[in-house]
Structures are given as C-alpha cells and as structure tokens.
Design a protein that fits this description.
The structure is a homotetramer. By secondary structure, chain A is mainly α. In chain A, 76% of the residues lie in helices and 0% in strands. In chain A, helix 1 runs antiparallel to helix 2 and helix 2 runs antiparallel to helix 3. Chain A is elongated, with a radius of gyration of 17 Å. The relative contact order of chain A is 0.11. Chains in contact: A-B, A-D, B-C, C-D. The interface between A and B is large, with 45 and 45 residues.
C-alpha cells in the first residue's frame, strides 16, 4: 500500500470495522435475521471493493513499478514471473 | 437468530471483528499488499460462511417454522410466499 | 425442478449455452481479453441468478412441501433436518 | 489472449460448454434440483478459474508488455493508467 493511498484504505477499513460492530449490535438486539444478512452482504461488498482497489494498486506499484526503485513495500527479490504468479494466486483466493 | 444459536453467531462475529482489526494493524504497519489481500479474502470467506449459516437457520426457524408459534424474531405477518421471495432477494445480495 | 417452471429454466440454460458459444467464438477470433472477461463475468452472473432461482424453488417445493405428497423429484426419504443440511451444503458451494 | 495460450483457453471453454450441455440434459431428465445446483456451482468455479487465468495473462501481455511491440490484441492506444483502470473495472465485474 503506497503511503499516499494509505489514508483512503484506512478510512475504508474503519468503515468496515464500524459495519461489523453494527452487525454485532444487531445480533445482541436480536434483530430479524434477514436484516442481519443484508448487512453481512454489504460488508462483503465493501471488502470486495477494497480488495479490487488494493490489487489494482499492487499491480501498479509492485508489478509495473518493479525494478524502478520507487516501489513501496513490494516483495523486492521477486521476478516479474513470480509477481504475476502471486497475482494469480491472490485473485484465486477471491474467486474460488 | 434463535437464542440458543446466538452465542455461536456472536463468537463468529467477534472473530471477524478481530480479523478486521488485524487488517487495520497490517495497513498501519505498512505490510505487503498481497498479505493484506490474503487477510481480506479470509474475512470475506468467514462472512460468507456466517451468511450461509444464518440463511439456513432462517429457513429453518422462520420459513419452515412459520405459523408454529415457536418462531423467534421472524417477520410475523408474512405469508410463506413472501418469506420465500425474501429468501430469494437475500440470496441475490450474496450472489450477484 | 417443478414441471411448470422447467421451461423457464430451460430457456435460461439455452441462453447461457449461447453465451458460452459466443465466448468460444470471441477466442477463435482472437478478441481483446478484457472483452472476453466481461462476457465471462456475464455468464457467471446468469449462472448465479439461475442458482438463486433453483435454490428458492427447491426450498419451496422440497423443503417446505416435504411430506405433502405433491413434491416433485425431491429426495423422498430425507428428514427436514437432512434437507436443511443439504441446503446449507449447496449454498456453501456457491459461497466459499 | 496470446496465440500460444489460446488452445488451453479453448480446451477449458469446450469443457465448460460440455458442462452446460450436461446441465441442460439434467433438467430435461428432471433430475433432483440439488444435483443441478451442484453442477451450476461447478461451472461457476470453472468460469472463475478461467477468468483469473485470462486476467493474469492480460496483465502480463498487455499491461506489463505495454509498448514492447510484442503485445497481442491489446488495446493499443491506451496509457498504462487507462489499462490499470480497465483492470480495476474488469475485476469489479467479478467481485461485486
């Protein structure tokens, strides 16, 4: 995660943490299960959107920026082939 | 959510909240994006598993138990057709 | 699948088969990968929507209609508990 | 899709078309809905795996290979930023 983008990622994660806390309250208050499910689906969508964003940034800063010296927290000693294989594996964890 | 099952749902949600907090720490510590993505995929799977569980319980206690008088926090004045339509909509929020 | 609903399911499957054939043509014609990916995502959504529909109908005709004598091609000697466990497993195959 | 990889993509698509034809037969034969659903989930997984593969190849040949002159059926006049935005949109179609 590049420094400049990190505050956006943090803001999204704070929102997601807040949504999860909201679901915990709903269960404590014994709310209708379908309403709980709707909230779970919303958190899932927010996580997916964050995943898409992080993966696109990873491709940008680590895979494309590979070897440019400017990359930030990229797995330095990897070849492009290894980086691509890692993208494939990571994608597969979301789409399985 | 039936009372007897609520402690299990709460335990799962606590675990999910803990996982989200862990991801927030990873971003604070500027960890490698692929590791963050792997954790996001794990939370997503945990949410999906919880969603499956809640939906199956909802079908059991509200749709099947409909009219038995024993249902707990079910949307009382719905017909079976309306309950099924709601199941369809809820499923659609996960699979879209 | 109830007889009355089968023609709708068949129509949807025909459309999905047509979409897959379209993707095969796109690959034969060496079309731009992103366009192929967009079509793959469309087939996936169509399959998900069909899955939601079939699962809701299954709950309606086999789980709810259980023991009514009117059920059609339901796994006859199952108890409601077994049917619900099967719904859970089936959902888990879509959300994993 | 690069020419050298195209036969693999075609083989996968043939298998997927065969699976869809199999589901059509199951519906014609009025098979148990849960078995149909299991097959639908299998096709969905096969499509996802193909999507992951195509997206990784796209990143490799079009995004990384951008400007190298060797790219094959890539959207030539796009900048890297546009290519990345397109990756983001495409990913979002699978994870929404």
């Amino acid at each position: 995660v590049k420094k400049s983008d990190r505050s956006d990622v943090k803001a999204r994660l704070n929102r997601i943490a807040g949504q999860v806390a909201g679901i915990q309250r709903m269960v404590d208050e014994d709310r209708y299960c379908v309403d709980v499910l709707t909230q779970i689906a919303a958190v899932r969508s927010a996580l997916d959107a964050l995943g898409v964003e992080l993966l696109a940034r990873h491709v940008e800063s680590c895979v494309l920026g590979h070897g440019s010296g400017s990359e930030h927290k990229c797995a330095a000693p990897m070849t492009k082939e290894e980086l691509l294989e890692e993208v494939r594996l990571t994608l597969g964890r979301f789409l399985k």
